[in-house]
Amino acid sequence: MEIQDISDDIDVKVKKYQRGESADLEALKDKKLKGQLANREDLYKKSANAAAKAEKWLMQTEGGRLESEGFEKTWRFSQQSIAQEVDVASRKNQFDIVLPDLGPYTIDYTSSGRYMVTAGCKGHLAIMDLHTMKPIKDFQVRETVRDVVFLHNELFFAAAQKKYTYIYNNAGTELHCLKEHGAVLKLQFLKNHFLLSSINKFGHLHYQDITTGQMVGNYRSGLGRSDVLQVNPYNSVVTSGHSGGTISMWKPTSAASLVKMLCHRGPVTAIAFHPNGHLMATAGMDKKLKIWDLRKYEALQTLPGHAKSLDFSQKGLLAASTGSFIQILANSSDSQNYDRYMIHTMVKGYQIQKSRFRPYEDVLGIGHSMGLSSILVPGSGEPNFDSWVANPFETLKQRREKEVRLLLDKLPPESIILDPTKIGTLRNPNKIQKATKEEKEAEKAAAIAAAKSGPQKKKTKGRSKPSKVAKKKQEGVEKAKRPFAEENKHEVVSKKKQKRITEANELPKALQPFVSRKSS
Amino acid sequence: MRVKVISRSADEFTRERSNDLQRVSRNYDPNLRTQEKAVEYVRALNAAKLDKVFARPFIGAMDGHIDAISCMAKNPSHLKGLFSGSMDGDIRLWDIASRKTVCQYPGHQGAVRGLTVSTDGRVLVSCGSDCTVRLWRVPLASGIESIDSSDSADKSLASYVWKNAFWAVDHQWEGNHFATAGAQVDIWDHNRSVPVNSFEWGNDTVISVRFNPGEPNILATSGSDRSITLYDLRTSSPARKLIMRTKTNSIAWNPMEPMNFTAANENCNCYSFDARKLEEAKCVHKDHVSAVLDIDYSPTGREFVTGSYDRTVRIFQYNGGHSREIYHTKRMQRVFCVKFSCDASYVISGSDDTNLRLWKAKASEQLGVILPRERKKHEYMEAVKNRYKHLPEVKRILRHRHLPKPIYKAGLLRRTMADAEKRKEDRRRAHSAPGSMMRKSVRKNRIIQEIE
């Protein structure tokens, strides 16, 4: 029976490594190509099988879990009761740091989960090593700090301060002042692309390449002030939530948003993405928490409740926190729906600013108005890390080597697209030929809007009369419209030509040159 | 209540002593590596660029002859040895590793036209325009370093005078016979001063001859009457003849698929044939802009090298229509002979400027001992490059070659001419009665007829 069990298990595991369905080879006509592709598919299957089989030896650490017996409910277990059951080393991960003066605090972890950077709203910045539980550096900047993120490793972090964004190193030295971002509300770091993205008070979205310092993109969201910004780790598309209840997805190479969705009937307060990229959770002021399927862009589940901060763990648990209350949701194995898994209540009066799952650990870090806390959430983290992806026990040399490797594999900003598996595939030839009418309309509208809102040059005396300005603007709009009109004309002409050619083809070859152009 | 949380002790994941290796743990879960396709694409792009950065194919020139190199021969039993003959009758043995002359033979009165080495690698056969075939002793492989050119075999083992000037010579892959080409094809034995057999089909000069690597009794020749002729030594008369529109300068058999051979043609193309089915070429290899003068297959049978009158050396896939690689230098003149080295990693060209040149077969290959990690890295780079080679950016980088201006221009011109010809033919076809002008494939249209 056990053997049966294992073979069932293997199928599930293999599926994980197959990265989607195999190609449909039956539709191919070219026999040679078919053979080659069949070989390739075979190879993929084999490697997926090998990876699944190797799991047994490579992935020795078992994941955490929390199971109830009898009538117990998992959400009834308090942190104290969990603490009594776990080992001493894990108990160290439950802590409260009381910092009453400079809060509320926001936090961020490195990708390996070893280091934590925290920022108090009133100017306190600190980096901690969570293995030794010692602060590496803490210092005060004596101005508002709104957000903080680690860059590609623990040596650098960016802090959004009152007026500008700054980049510090782990010794607390200010390395750069990023003035172009403006007064930033939220920061996100795209680690495959080395892009720092931010959204500022005016709803402007900025992308800056931190290796070269080049400003890659600078766009107006046009939807007002927003302090919700989250990057989808699956495709590096940045999503911002707005006060109108919409969320918009952005890439650094286009001024128009990729997707705009109306998610809530009130301001959006938080967004989170599942690590596999298919699920999105949003929370709004309309007292709703929604879970979306990003493949179909439709809500899978709507739950009641506020959430100021949302986060998905590596294993797919969802932490929603509001006030001094944290709820952790999990999708039960038998259904796709998320339901209550754990709850945790802070001391009454604490205002949670941000809660983040710590990667590769069963820990949820909480930044709140009275300091920092960390609680145990069994089953949230990925138990097996990969030394080449994120290594919590990284040595100095390994860190250096990894930095070089990361820089070599740095992706260009163009590689951010909604479906990252599309890279390297062929476009459907039917689709390339022509943009649809709606697309064209949209493009035209965008061009016109851009022309209308474009910056006006300051002219000399008498040239900036309102009438002149209006005229100028009108000219700009006309100019923007022109290429579309021309395209249309081309199309009409080519249609005419086509007609003539088809007519001509019906005649004998020798007579074709004499077909008159006007007859058609 | 059952609880378990992840708990790692640092001892388990770090090394105990500083001279231990670092502990590594793996997890191949695709969710941990986001955007892996994009990353792979970037790696492919970088690999393609690095390929270009490291592409330094030219290793060195071997200087020594005082006239154009007319022919070369590989020594099958000695990797480093290479023979070359020049237009002034000089024959030299080179050590490729040190790029020095090991031994110099007195050679011929006129030009040396053909060189070949016997199967056991002991005897070198040369023929020349002075109507003689000479046999020379090849110094032993072990003694190559010690022999200095002074006490080289300055006397030939044998010298056979015959009626006409010779154009080429080739030795059987297995056996004691060798064939010379001239006014007719003669089959010689090592110990006989007159040919044991001779073949004649038409009156024109035979200019090249090559034995089949698989079947020792079959040979192919090309003649100045634009023919390619196949002979079987077991019969008394030639087997088959193919007449093309232009002359074939040289022939090379594919050593791995010995029924196939490739002919280097005067009209800038090479044609691969199946010897059993001569009415149609298997593949046309285009890219040279002037007559292809010599061709040699790699021992792997997957690619071959050609030397051309346009002063370039190109490497083709055995089934590829266009060249994989082009080699040229400012100083290299008309390339008269090319050889692939016996380990398939070098290419040697002999040209009009009296030098032999040594090239790498893969331009960006790393020479010397490669550590296992390095080798794995190279393999990975090769694999990603191969996977993304169809994407425009990668393709562009991989395809790009700098060409000397005259060759670039000549290529353009040739393309224009071909287009014009095609257009003209299309028009003719359009204006003639349907079915009267059949479309002829490129693989067929240079072939005039096949004679049994």
Q: Report helical residue fraction of chain B.
A: 10-25%
Low-pLDDT segments, ≥5 res of chain B = none
The coarse overall form of chain B would be globular
Poorly predicted runs of chain A are none
Radius of gyration of chain B: 27 Å
Overall radius of gyration of chain A = 28 Å
Number of helices of chain B: 5
Describe the main β-sheet of chain A briefly: 4 strands, antiparallel
Q: What's the helix count of chain A?
A: 8
Instruction: Output the CATH class name of the largest domain in chain A.
Output: Mainly Beta
Number of strands of chain A: 29
Overall pLDDT of chain B: 91
Characterization of the model:
The complex is a heterodimer of chains A (520) and B (452). Chain A is α+β, with helices and mostly antiparallel strands and 520 residues long. Chain A folds into 3 domains: 2-58, no CATH class; 74-403, 7 Propeller (Methylamine Dehydrogenase, Chain H), CATH 2.130.10; 439-514, no CATH class. Helices cover 25% and strands 31% of the residues of chain A. Chain A has 8 helices and 29 strands. In chain A, the strands form 7 sheets. In chain A, strands 2-29-28-27 form a 4-stranded antiparallel beta sheet. A 4-stranded antiparallel beta sheet of chain A has the order 3-4-5-6, with no helix packed on it. In chain A, strands 7-8-9-10 form a 4-stranded antiparallel beta sheet, with no helix packed on it. In chain A, a hairpin with a 5-residue loop joins strand 23 (309-312) and strand 24 (318-322). The longest helix of chain A has 41 residues, at 466-506. Chain A is globular and about 95 Å long. The relative contact order of chain A is 0.09. With 452 residues, chain B is of the alpha+beta class. Chain B has 2 domains: 35-55 and 372-399, no CATH class; 58-364, YVTN repeat-like/Quinoprotein amine dehydrogenase (Methylamine Dehydrogenase, Chain H), CATH 2.130.10.10. Chain B has 5 helices and 30 strands. A 5-stranded antiparallel beta sheet of chain B has the order 15-16-17-18-30, with no helix packed on it. A 4-stranded antiparallel beta sheet of chain B has the order 2-29-28-27, with no helix packed on it. In chain B, strand 12 (177-181) and strand 13 (185-189) form a beta hairpin. Chain B is globular, with a radius of gyration of 27 Å. The model of chain B has no long low-confidence stretch (mean pLDDT 91). At the A-B interface, helix 2, strand 1 and helix 3 of A face strand 1 and helix 2 of B.
